[in-house]
Write a structure and sequence with these properties.
By secondary structure, the protein is of the alpha/beta class. Helix content is 28%, strand content 27%. It folds into two domains: 248 residues, Metal-dependent hydrolases (TIM Barrel), CATH 3.20.20.140; 200 residues, no CATH class. It has 18 helices and 29 strands. The radius of gyration is 25 Å and the shape is elongated.
Length: 583
């Protein structure tokens, strides 16, 4: 944000009150995030900038009638792709909930389409009605234990860091790569030090000297804490704590006890992943604020965690507070305990109709980014989900409710004609991950417990982080039909039972996002979930949960297109515990 000399003179005159401000919000109760208090005052705006807080007269005046005025809310960590909306459509959805700035990690689309995917994302973000900044994806692919659609080296990150709106390097999920001194990972950390940019972290369960070594490379934050002890240790190590409350991982209630007046300035409230139904029905950061306050967090402390704390961490000193020189991104609420957003101002302009703020996208955007819009490549003819019974006891992925971590358990399997099959009575179901970027034929096979599927199959092209096709089913034929649906629609979600499609959602943008409106996506997604419910699943969002079963950086047992992965040893592992030996 820069101004010329004439603009600065105008701001000075209006700030001094010797000239009427362009716009004044009158009769406000201003939330002062610097001092942690509220003050009755007017807010004076010149062009896009706040020039004064006090008693002012304006060319245009808006009477706030004693309502609270907060800085615009700032999302510190999210993967917009998880909303299944394009960046511009996502912005239209969150802005009415008070979110005026978003810092995202586009590593989902980067894993599918590399730098071309990031360029698409940047173009779409320029069409957004709120500010969207990015972090350069650090882990494409996340590990060597999966097949992604692209590979980003340190040289690629150096190029991305030069793009306008890129603030630093995104979550370093490959914490084993850091600890085991992987050359490619260390090159990225050294790049960050040379460029003097921040690096986000991702280190679930990391503790002790391993944590010290991880932080010592320059990693500044973590959003994977699930216990107070873990959160406290990471805060004490100098990390910022990103407290996550998304559509699947909900850590807010567990982590609130770690907060106090001495450390809250090192804490942010983030969503990480948030589905369209959540956004349209419950809100965005306003939803998390309401929950935090209900759980006992002081309202101003909570607001600091989505405003000034975010601003300070990312070095965005032009926003995050109501003070002279800051952008006039403002949110008006009647009650600090309720956080029900009334008016929203972006750069001094009241937003009444977000649809009117979105310019039309490049009409040839599909042609400009071919790998983004043609990303699902699978040889259906040769696809097989048969699992030969090489033993009697198998390792099974056990789902942990409301968490991304899984357990590794061992069960005697149901065997039929020398093949291991799904055991619906014990909720042990077949799971597969199919490489979908280059039709290599890779297909990892295993079993999962805890989904509750009673019949049919569900499938998705959203599977973190390489976004291969993930399928869970009760029988092989429905699993294959579900994959066929995904191939035909260019990615998305599918629900199949007895050969019939019970629901589907097309996500033609990299198999991750839709070009449709938020309302259309939310309605279609809701119908897909109804189809899922018919199959016996009572989990709120099984697709989000399923997508993380393929993420081999979160303990303990996961699955990729290469096979089962023991995250604790960072290596593949055999399905069969008692595999029969052959001579």
């Amino acid at each position: 944000m820069s101004v010329n000399k004439d603009q600065m003179k105008k701001q000075i005159r209006q700030g001094r009150g010797i000239e009427k401000a362009d716009h004044v919000l009158k009769n406000c109760v201003v939330v002062d995030v610097f001092c942690g208090e509220t003050v009755k005052a007017d807010v004076a705006i010149c062009d896009e900038i706040i020039v004064g807080v006090g008693k002012y007269k304006g060319k245009i005046e808006t009477d706030c009638q004693g309502a609270y005025v907060c800085p615009g809310f700032m999302e510190g960590h999210i993967h917009i792709e998880s909303s299944m909306l394009s960046p511009s459509e996502f912005a239209k959805t969150v802005l009415p909930h008070g979110t005026t700035t978003v810092i995202c990690d586009p590593h989902e689309i980067a894993n599918v389409a590399g730098i071309e995917g990031i360029n698409y994302f940047l173009e779409e973000s320029r069409n957004a009605c709120c500010s969207i900044f990015m972090m350069a994806p650090s882990c494409v692919p996340a590990t060597h234990l999966e097949t992604s659609g692209a590979v980003l080296s340190a040289l690629d990150l150096q190029e991305i860091l030069q793009f306008q709106g890129v603030l630093g390097i995104a979550e370093m999920m490959n914490f084993p790569g850091v600890l085991f001194e992987d050359d490619g990972v260390l090159e990225k950390m050294i790049l960050a030090q040379k460029k003097k940019v921040i690096v986000d972290g991702h280190a679930p369960g990391l503790t002790g000297k391993d944590l010290q070594a991880y932080v010592g490379t320059g990693i500044l934050s973590d959003h994977e804490c699930t216990t107070v002890a873990e959160a406290h240790e990471k805060l004490a190590a100098g990390m910022y704590l990103f407290i996550r409350e998304g559509s699947t991982a909900k850590n807010l209630k567990s982590l609130i006890p770690v907060l106090n007046a001495r450390n809250s300035h090192r804490c942010l409230l983030v969503t990480d992943d948030c589905h369209p139904g959540e956004l349209s029905q419950n809100g965005h950061l306003d939803r998390i604020l309401r929950k935090a306050i209900l759980l006992g967090v002081d309202p101003i402390t909570a607001i600091q965690m989505v405003t000034i704390n975010v601003s300070n961490y990312f070095g965005l000193q032009d926003r995050g507070a109501i003070a002279p020189g800051r952008l006039a991104d403002l949110v008006v609420v009647e009650d600090l305990k309720e956080i029900r957003v009334g008016k929203v101002f972006v750069r001094g302009r009241e937003i009444k109709n977000t649809a009117s703020l979105v310019p039309k996208s490049n009409s040839d955007i599909r042609g400009a980014y071919p790998s983004v819009f043609d990303s699902v490549h699978v040889n259906i003819k040769n696809l097989s989900f048969t699992i030969a019974a090489k033993g009697t006891i198998a390792r099974v992925i056990k789902i942990v409710p409301d968490q991304l971590i899984t357990e590794s358990v061992e069960f005697p399997m149901l065997i039929n004609n020398e093949q291991a099959v799904s055991d619906i009575d014990r909720d042990i179901l077949k799971i597969a991950v199919i490489e979908r970027h280059m039709a290599s034929g890779n297909c990892g096979l295993g079993f999962v417990q805890g989904l509750g599927l009673k019949k049919g199959a569900i499938a998705s092209t959203i599977s973190h982080d390489s976004h291969n096709i993930v399928i869970i089913g009760c029988n092989d034929q429905d699993m294959k039909t579900a994959v066929q649906v995904l191939v035909e629609q260019g990615g998305g979600l599918a629900v199949v039972c007895d050969g019939n499609v019970e629901g589907s959602l097309s996500l033609e943008i990299a198999g991750l996002m839709s070009s449709a409106s938020a309302l259309e996506v939310a309605e279609t997604f809701s119908n897909v979930l109804k189809g899922v419910a018919k199959l016996g699943i009572d989990i709120e969002d099984p697709f989000m949960l399923m997508s993380f079963l393929a993420l081999p950086v979160i303990p303990h047992l996961k699955i990729t297109d290469i096979g089962l992965v023991n995250v604790d040893t960072f290596s593949t592992t055999e399905l069969w515990v008692d595999a029969k030996t052959t001579r």
